[in-house]
Design a protein that fits this description.
This protein has eight helices and twelve strands. It has 234 residues and is α/β, with parallel strands linked by helices. The strands form three sheets. The protein has a five-stranded parallel beta sheet with strand order 2-1-3-4-5, with helices on both faces. Strands 6-7-8-9 form a four-stranded antiparallel beta sheet, covered by helices on one side. The N and C termini lie far apart (41 Å).
């Protein structure tokens, strides 16, 4: 069953989210703070598809800390942050720590469920592909992208990627030298029904440059195409 972990310290908001997720067919686990969320993750043996984390939770493990820890433990779990409109830097910080998406409060039930559905579909697709006997590798210069193991090698050395980063790299490798606009990247990775903003693409590109470029401030592989988006050069 599709399993969602909801970590939100405000009980009314948490119950509101849980009710709507149950109506949408999700098994829902509840946590009132970050420490409890991590304990539930461990208790479930990591068998959680998507975590919905409020950024402003009390204690040492707020939403950003839990996001960072969950991403460290799993590259495949989907992570969505709940933020306030005033938490712009926290949104960027969360994406840099490996979150897949964020939803700004106040939000409608349909928007939240749609965003969770989109993240869950990516998680489920990756798991399904990993079960199949994928032997295909995509080569680009000194890089090798393995579609079966969902891994990236640079000069024979592994580069750790989140599921979103892997999908962006797969898109790049499949379209080398082609200028792709942010909307195309957004639709390919996040889905046609994605509600969010295109800047989520820019944040993930920034993360990728830090991982694949020798000099992230002077990129040679992920090239900005001004006024459009990005392209990949081997």
């Amino acid at each position: 069953m599709k399993t969602i972990l909801v970590a939100e310290d405000e009980q009314a908001i948490r119950e509101f989210i849980v009710i709507n997720l149950k109506r949408a067919g999700y098994k829902t686990l509840e946590a009132s703070d970050g420490d409890e969320a991590l304990k539930i993750y461990d208790k479930e043996g990591g068998n959680i598809d998507v975590a919905v984390l409020d950024i402003m939770m009390p204690g040492q493990n707020d939403g950003l800390a839990v996001c960072k820890e969950l991403r460290h433990r799993s590259g495949s779990i989907g992570i969505i942050l709940l933020t306030a409109k005033t938490q712009e830097m926290d949104k960027v910080g969360g994406l840099m720590m490996g979150a897949d998406d964020y939803v700004t409060k106040p939000f409608s039930p349909s928007e939240l469920v749609a965003r969770i559905d989109a993240v869950y579909r990516r998680v489920a697709l990756e798991r399904e592909r990993s079960k199949k006997n994928f032997n295909e590798e995509l080569h680009s210069g000194s890089f090798v992208l393995n579609l079966r193991n969902r891994t990236l090698l640079k000069n024979g050395q592994p580069v750790e990627l989140t599921q979103v980063e892997f999908q962006i790299m797969e898109y790049f490798f499949s379209n080398p030298g082609t200028a792709m606009n942010r909307t195309d990247i957004l639709r390919h990775v996040w889905g046609d029904s994605y509600y969010g903003e295109e800047k989520i693409v820019d944040v993930n590109i920034r993360r990728l440059r830090m991982k694949v470029e020798d000099e992230p401030s002077n990129p040679k592989h992920i090239i900005t195409v001004w006024g459009l988006g990005y392209k990949w050069e081997a």
